[in-house]
Amino acid sequence: MTILSAHIPEAGYSKKIILRNIDLDIKEKSIVAFIGPNGAGKSTLLKALMGIVSTPNGRVVFQEKEITTVPIEQRVQTGIAFVPQGNRVFTELTVRENLEIGGYLLKDKVEVSHRIDALMEIFPDLKDRINKVAGILSGGEKQQLALARALMLEPKVLLLDEPSLGLSTKNVVSAFALIEDINRKKGTTILIVEQKVRDVLKISHHVYALKMGEIVFDGLPTDLQKDDQLKMIFLS
Q1: What is the DSSP string of 187-209?
Q2: Are residues 55 and 78 in contact, defined by beta-carbon separation less than 8 angstroms?
């Protein structure tokens, strides 16, 4: 079943058009990768789905309801979360305080506490650091915290912009395993923009390849890997 779809004739910043002729059909509980060279428009596409970038003459539909003109906060309330690149956390606040900010829409403090406890089962590395300031965390731990904070409101769709950025090889493997675990255990639909193509294709159910702002491949990861020309462009 489709959970998110979009038709974006064009989108960009001011008068600079970045995306053209974008059509997406995202299935519920899937992991979907967006790959392509730098400047292809991948991050802009996630921002368009989140409402950070406007989509004039476009159409974005989430759970059968059009959200094209819905503000960012309302998109969060309806079940879409966005984790930008760069392991962004509040470094002067504790891990717990970061998570509490992630649950800012929850009025019941007991429910906030329950959700934090549940997330510690998924993110055990954070459990021993729950009362430590986030600034002392490693890059991998900050990435986990950014993910955990986004999950506090239990989104139906999670948008991840280059979750491997700045991580060591070991932490990259751990990050992708964690993303796959979230998808499997919570049923969260996950859209990932990623430069580490081979790694992300291992966990993805579907892939969109972008080049110069347009989709040039829309299909299964295995089909992309069978096409010699596409392999040369995106997997070399």
Answers
A1: --EEEEE-S-HHHHHHH-SEEEE
A2: no
Query: For the segment 211-226, what is each residue's pLDDT rounded down to a tens digit?
Result: 999 999 999 999 988 8
Q: List all residues 6 or more positions away from 13 whose beta carbon is below 8 Å from its beta carbon.
A: 44, 53
Are 191 and 157 spatial neighbours (Cβ–Cβ below 8 Å)? yes
What is the identity of the amino acid at 109? K
List CB contacts of 52: < 8 A, sequence separation 6 or more.
Answer: 72, 82
> Residue 88 has what pLDDT?
86
Name the pairing type of β-strands 31-35 and 16-27.
unpaired
Question: What is the signed CA dihedral for 99, 102, 107, 112, rounded to 10 degrees?
Answer: -30
Instruction: Read off the pLDDT of residues 114-166 as tens digits, 9 standing for 90 and up.
Output: 999 999 999 999 999 999 999 999 988 999 999 999 999 999 999 999 998 88
Q: How many Cβ atoms sit within 10 Å of the Cβ of residue 228?
A: 8
Q: Are 135 and 127 in contact (CB under 8 A)?
A: no
Domains and CATH numbers, the chain: 2-88+155-234 (3.40.50.300)
